């Protein structure tokens, strides 16, 4: 069992499984001592001196019996073709896995580590190193013999070697050193921090992150060392490279193994815990942590406690951490167990989300990575999500997610609808049902409509509006609505919905009848959309009662479908509606309804007197006698005055204004419009004994009649209100007229003089005569071809030219001659001769 020590809401970074199959059988009677990982296979060493080659699943592919005691180290080159093995009894073997040729040697002391050159398979890199009391370099020379060189000794047992490219790193009791094989120089010495720890019990862990970065873990200390090139100017006798420690920090537990993971570290910790009963420390389960190194510390990313077999009996040196270079696989080796840790993939992530009941996130993750997931199915995750929502009573959310989860699978849709029905939540799913190209069986939609019809008329109406009529059996729903209307015949929601259903069914007459009954605003749209004018001929009064303006506009816009005569016939019993219709018709066209103009006089008089006078003025078809009779009956003075003047009886009209209205201003305005001298006399005669009328005449008569005529007829001694002001106004108006005349005269004289001067200047200008000019009489060139001969040319001010001999005889006025062309066209005399002689 592998448990994460982090908060349960945080997802683990790695997943674990035991390496089983052949490994299980091996470790029953033996114990693992070391292990090396290659991309192609695994190499496992045991305490009984055997080496097993395993595939990735842990099955044994080869077995080598090397010794009878513990295998300390196995080393592979990059190609995986050669292996180096060392054991506790001093045996060292380096050979090809497919040739068995190589190096076989027995030493008189234990050899703790061996490391092959990474390119050992190549002929010029046949090198390896061993570590016991000394660090020995073996190199095969051209005679095929092995040459040995001591690279280091005298600092205790060498416990770890890691070879990367040209750099060999090793650890002994004092610290960690790096040797450059290309320059044959040792370039660093990283001292051990905690010297109190026994190096054999708490061995050093080394791993290369890349060709120049070494990670050192020892005790509770981790150091990241970067190998850098030294500046040539600083070299002197120093190595060409140096090491810089870029990060160093202490950890909580003892380090048993290290491995890089991109820019992070995977660290295997040996853990001791204090028991509650005793003060002694006991061995706890090892931990595998992922940490983010910082310059002076680290950040813990994840931490997992591993329940490996017999962990209570293991020491720090019993654990190893091996990793594969090609992919993020980490092997935790203990004497009785081998555990593989790998990064969690998308399937694992989805597993965790499902366990945590984060179904929506799981569904989203599955949709994004549907090509990469192997164990999960998007549809099944979606269905689990729906189950979870319904179980928690989140019916609206579940219904909304159905579109995403069920997609185009109609069978699943139908099953889900029945499930919603079982829990009484059909309403929740109704608005999300497919209604486009993909549709369910009509029975499904009808089932939902019946459910709404039982409990929610408004919701039922909404579905009828939103759902296309072809989704369900229209007749069945109409019957159901009619059944409900028998119990509630005046329900406007049901009636409106029934009208919509009739519209879907193309029974427009029934729909129209309902709309008119309800006075529904869509009635006009329905008539226009489906051309129902033939159906409304007997319903015009209903339409007008509902909305006069819209009804009249519709009738007038569609005269070709419903004639004016038909409308008038239908409205005969409703004169107030007939007036509205005929009035709008007259406003649109004064001539279309001319045969009803006589009828309209009475309608205007009865319902709309303000528009009667404009009608009488604009209409040329109404009988004046009939109009006069109606207006006199109703004592409409203004309209009667207009009709009398229209019929030529201006004197009677003026008399009505003076007697009936008593409005001198209106009388004067009327006299001005008629512009009749006799009418003015009548007006003066009628006003002469009425001082207020005389005042009005004095103020307004000045520009039409000589005021003296009025003043002379005023009786002496008559008191006239505001006489002085009126006389002043008459004088002022007279002076104004005089000033206007004088001003006009000045302007006229000035313009005449200006034009005369302009004409004089124009006529005094010279006229150009050249070889292109022609005689207007003979049409020959005006100038002779031989200029030496004498000639005479006559040029008029109108620019017409003649040879003198081509002109006719002079006119009646001696010495004055006119242009024949201009005289014939009557353009004026065109006189004033310019005579040119030579």
Automatic annotation (TrEMBL):
Keywords: Autophagy, Cytoplasm, Cytoplasmic vesicle, Endosome, Golgi apparatus, Lysosome, Membrane, Metal-binding, Protein transport, Transport, Zinc, Zinc-finger
InterPro entries: Beta-prop_Vps41 (IPR057780), Clathrin_H-chain/VPS_repeat (IPR000547), TPR-like_helical_dom_sf (IPR011990), Vps41 (IPR016902), Vps41/Vps8 (IPR045111), WD40/YVTN_repeat-like_dom_sf (IPR015943), WD40_repeat_dom_sf (IPR036322), Znf_RING (IPR001841)
MF-aspect GO terms: zinc ion binding
Family matches, as Pfam families: Beta-prop_Vps41 (PF23411), TPR_Vps41 (PF23556), zf-RING_Vps41 (PF23555)
GO biological process, one term: endosomal vesicle fusion
Role according to the record: Plays a role in vesicle-mediated protein trafficking to lysosomal compartments including the endocytic membrane transport pathways.
Family classification: Belongs to the VPS41 family.
Stated name of the protein: Vacuolar protein sorting-associated protein 41 homolog
Source taxonomy: Eukaryota, Metazoa, Chordata, Craniata, Vertebrata
